Every structure is written in C-alpha cells, then in structure tokens.
Amino acid sequence: MTARGKIFVALFSGINVGGNRIVKMAELRAFFEALGFTAVQSYVQSGNVVFRADEGDAAELAGTIEDAFETKWGFRSRIMVRDADWLARRVAENPYPEVADEPKKLHLYTLERQPTEEEEKRLADKCTGPEHFTVKGDAFYLKAPNGLGHSEFANLIPRTLKVPGTARNWRTVLTLLEMAKAAG
C-alpha cells in the first residue's frame, strides 16, 4: 500500500431488501469513517461502499467490518471486500461484452471463494435456459438475456453453487469502478 492507503469496495449482502434490515447510506458512510476509513462513498441503497484503508487486506477488512457492523446494527451481513484492482480486472475480463451496454442483462457475483470444479459442474447442469455464466476465480459472470428478475436460473445459483457471494448489475459494477478510480 502507498502512504495514502489503498482503495477498496465493500459489497453488502442482504441489507435494504424488501423493507428489511434497513441501513441508511448516510449512517453506513459515517460507520466506515468511524472505523478510520477515508474517502468513503456509497452507491445506491443495496450497500456498496468505496473507501480507502491505510492498512489491511481485503479479507482482514471484511472480517473487521462484518464484526463491527453486527455490533452496531444487531444483525450480520456478509460483506465482500475487494480492492479496486480486482474490480478493474473483472471489468476488463468481462466474457460477455455484447451485453455490456445492457446492464440489466449482465451481473457480476463477487464470491467468497473460487468454486470447485464439482460445484461449477453442478451449476452448469442446472443452466438450461437462455442464461450463460462464466467463472473466473472468485468472480461469477451471469448473462441473463431476459433480465435477472425473469431468470429462473438466477434463483438456483445460491443454493446450487453453495458459495456465498453477492451480485451487482453491470451498471453498478461500472459505477463502483469509476468511483474507485476517482478516489484513488
């Protein structure tokens, strides 16, 4: 890390969904600042935070943030933390550039770990509709031609893959990358 720290993105899972587990973004930004992070910005209500940390890696930061979040809000949210370089690589490696201009048809899942071959095959066996997916390390790309809301396959992903993660549409991914670049 540089003397100025390193830029990270935190992706929360399961907050502000269906009127449950409500966390206001202004409070979430203040929470990150209270933890000592700087250049804190949030994007949309689903829990996307760009921030600068002076020390620590993504895994350490995720654990610290998850524990402090549970203490403050009284429930646990799985939080995927990745550095800005990870996000830039994932955008550059997009296997579905033909739908990059249709952000509701392309989603990036940030996974806790890389799926095993067996887990990936189990999911491929369930992918019988118009969707396509590609796994690259701890990133899962989903091309859903009819949109995520109309995808039966998308509903099968968490319980079939069994690798914790959280998804963002391509517009959110690109916006977070721009925010990270501007913060860096």
The parts where pLDDT drops under 50 for at least 5 residues are: none
Shape: globular
Query: What's the main sheet like?
Result: 4 strands, antiparallel
Secondary structural class:
alpha+beta
- Could you spell the SSE succession in H and E letters? EHEEHEHEHEEHEH
Number of helices: 6
Topology, please?
Elements: E1 6-12, H1 25-34, E2 38-43, E3 48-53, H2 58-73, E4 79-83, H3 84-92, E5 106-111, H4 117-126, E6 132-136, E7 139-143, H5 152-161, E8 165-169, H6 170-183
Antiparallel strand pairs: 1-3, 1-4, 2-3, 5-7, 5-8, 6-7
Helix pairs in contact: 3-6, 4-5
Give an overview in words.
The chain is an alpha+beta fold. It has six helices and eight strands, in the order βαββαβαβαββαβα. It folds into two domains: 6-87, SP0830-like domains (Alpha-Beta Plaits, 2-Layer Sandwich); 96-173, Alpha-Beta Plaits (2-Layer Sandwich). Helices cover 38% and strands 24% of the residues. The strands form two sheets. It has a four-stranded antiparallel beta sheet, sandwiched between helices. A four-stranded antiparallel beta sheet has the order 6-7-5-8. β6 (132-136) and β7 (139-143) form a beta hairpin. The longest helix has 16 residues, at 58-73. It is globular, with a radius of gyration of 16 Å. This is DUF1697 domain-containing protein. It comes from Ollibium composti.
